[in-house]
Amino acid sequence: MKEFPKGFLWGGAIAANQAEGAWNEDGKGPAISDVYRNGIVGGHFDGEVLEGHYYASHEAIDFYHRYKEDIALLAEAGLKCFRTSIAWSRIFPNGDEEQPNEKGLQFYDDLFDELLRYNIEPVITISHFEIPLNLILKYDGWKNRKLIGFFERYARTILTRYKGKVKYWMNFNEINHFHTIPLAAGGILIKDEQSKLQDIYQASHHVFVASALAKKLCSEISPDAKMGCMLSLSPIYPHTCNPEDIFDAYELRRRSLFYSDVMIRGYYPSYAKRIWREHGISVKMEEGDLEIIRENTVDYLGFSYYRSSTHKAGMPILGNTGGIIGLENPYLEKTEWGWPIDPKGLRFVCNELYDRYQIPLFIVENGYGGIDEIGENGEIHDDARIDYIRKHLLQLQEAIEDGCEVMGYTWWGPMDIVSAGTGEMRKRYGFIYVDKDNDGNGTLERRKKKSFNWYKSVIETNGKVL
Ligand code: BGP
């Protein structure tokens, strides 16, 4: 069997709000994820913590207190890297303070030290669906240009503090979900459908300037570190060979690549100008914005890949920018959550992206969310999960053979965590089981599943044995 490239970053990935818990400890302020019920992607936003309601992020899997135990297990599995995010509101509880919260900074110092003790590289997302709540309520989120300054201060603080500890950064998680989940991904509450697109493109512009500034700071403060962007990139197939379907699917695809087009190439693509013209959108920019965006493009493209989707002409294009399931694809099996399983799509998407950008790719999320059955002796034989990951890794190997430069692969949710889509615990991704149910009951005990040893041997052999 073929091996993966030398130094390939085998890892696992989580997000602060889906794992840490301790939502109001040590000075942390409330984040948007703390006031969502039933999932930050598809759930309900309360705007404040309402008494008597269950919020999955409040305890999550208590990673905040149990990270040492988790990291020891990850080290035993042989992980080379670990992706997590910094909860912005641990560092700046309201997002707009002048001074950071020392206890929040200390937590990530301790966490990164613990990882480095085992030679596990931290891969850090600066903002993963967990913007401080105050920035939404008081400022209208990214619609407000002031957020650029708040983000810049936050980025400067963490880049300076963790210089030498963190070599791999990513700006915004799945930023191309801005259109589908503007509140979670972009921190903007859509109050008026009429001005939705105007607001989204204006907020996106602020995000582009902010991420370019973060990249600039990264080059100045930590010249050896790399800063990537992060998108959700399911391939979008045309439903038939009807040119109408083919063009529409292509158009939808381009829109899902809008964010990487700007962050990687450093300019607004020509197709965006047509969208703006036809929808009467005018994006306010200040002098120097386009220059900042042009001069500070990202070093690599991180993306999540779970599934593909199928598109037919006439299905709504605007608003859909990636990650959607679309129409039934009769050639593919599905997970218990209805997500089409498409390993070949990973090879397709790697080639598509590498052809388009020629910068290193990093698969920072891939995995199988399913229900685990516990056997009589407490063992968990998660063969469907192993099968899913194996088939995706085989296709990733093919993509590398095709010539794509791939830095690494991080298994989504190495320990079971809260689902972003539904807020559930029973949608499990881990090779480590966490004893907790949807209502918050359980001991939080960690237990290895069958996939634990399987992934360990994959890493040990650098992908030779799959
Ligand atoms: C991505 C998010 C993650 C994650 C994953 C799986 O969209 O970046 O935060 O949770 O999807 O989705 P889910 O948790 O809904 O199964």
TrEMBL record:
InterPro entries: GH, GH_1_N_CS, Glyco_hydro_1. Transmembrane segments: none annotated. It holds the Pfam family Glyco_hydro_1. One of its GO terms (molecular function) is 6-phospho-beta-glucosidase activity. This is 6-phospho-beta-glucosidase. Keywords: Glycosidase, Hydrolase. It comes from Anoxybacillus andreesenii. It is an enzyme of class 3 (hydrolase). The keyword Hydrolase applies. Belongs to the glycosyl hydrolase 1 family. The keyword RNA-binding does not apply. Its EC number is 3.2.1.86.
